[in-house]
Prior knowledge:
Helix content is about 70%, strand content about 0%. By secondary structure, it is an all-alpha fold.
Amino acid sequence: EPSWRKTCKKVVAGAKGLQECRIGVIACAREMSKLAIWLRNKSDPDFMLFETISSESIELPVGQVRQYLSENALRREDLKIEEFENRWRKIAIEAASSLRNKYESSTNST
Length: 110
């Protein structure tokens, strides 16, 4: 089904973005958590890891919310974000690689 394939493509793109350091761990985790719901696959251990990362980083300002913070607040929060992402990066990239392997074949047209 086309919408399922499109969601699989988003999983692959997100995984690739994290692997290539084009997106951060937190942003990737938040996106992957949504995609897991759309794919009805929240019980997959790789998606579960991203849900954990997303939940544990909920207070960290990533994305559009940053526009509402002062420069000083952003500097403080950026230090927290950097520390958080460094702590999770290796295992998140491993999960991303696993998801990419699982869903890449589903993105090809039949």
